[in-house]
Amino acid sequence: SASFCSEQHLQRLDVVLARLKQERLKAKLSKCTFFQPEVRYLGHIISANGVATDPSKIEAVAKWQPPQTVSELRSFLGFASYYRRFVEGFATLAAPLHRLIAELGGTKSRRVQRSPQLSPEHWKEELKDCFETLKTKLTNAPVLAYADFSLPFILEVDASYGGLGAVLSQEQNGKVRPIAYASRGLKPTERNMANYSSMKLEFLALKWAMTEKFREYLLGHRCIVYTDNNPL
Description:
Elements: H1 2-22, E1 38-41, E2 44-47, E3 50-53, H2 55-62, H3 70-82, H4 90-104, H5 125-139, E4 153-160, E5 163-172, E6 175-184, H6 198-213, H7 215-218, E7 223-226
Parallel strand pairs: 4-7
Antiparallel strand pairs: 1-2, 2-3, 4-5, 5-6
């Protein structure tokens, strides 16, 4: 009910203000808003429904033209990476673009003053597809649910020699909703097929997701794991 939400809001506000007072910090009243159905915060929309990307920021992605230089590509990936938690398999999608930067632009310390141009020879169909797919996924990003620690979590993991991926979700009100997406590329030793079979890679993804990426969510809570690796 509205009265319950108001009371809950006041209780949480008391907790926040008490903590600020305890740490001898001050909040400027003119910059504070209270009892808002949603707020914009660091490029996100925070509402009762969950966390979403800020449309005013994502609008720039929809209009982003194919990069002409390594510097422009690096800027796009930097922007996209900020919202990677909304994109399933982000690391795998972005990997070919990062490889192109490494080949043409080198590391930050080795950048030349003039950014290398991306010729048609460099900007191949695979890279065009990765660029457009990232744009599409960012402009159609889901609203991420808040974790409910009274409910079990659902963890789905996947692994290939392209990278590791994981989705953390929960069934809330009869609907499975994503809480966060995570992904990363493989380290050089992990790319060695002699060291890592497909089963080991899948287990690596599970270990990484449970003990590193989503540890704060899963520690001490029930979790249902889904994997498409039969031996595992």
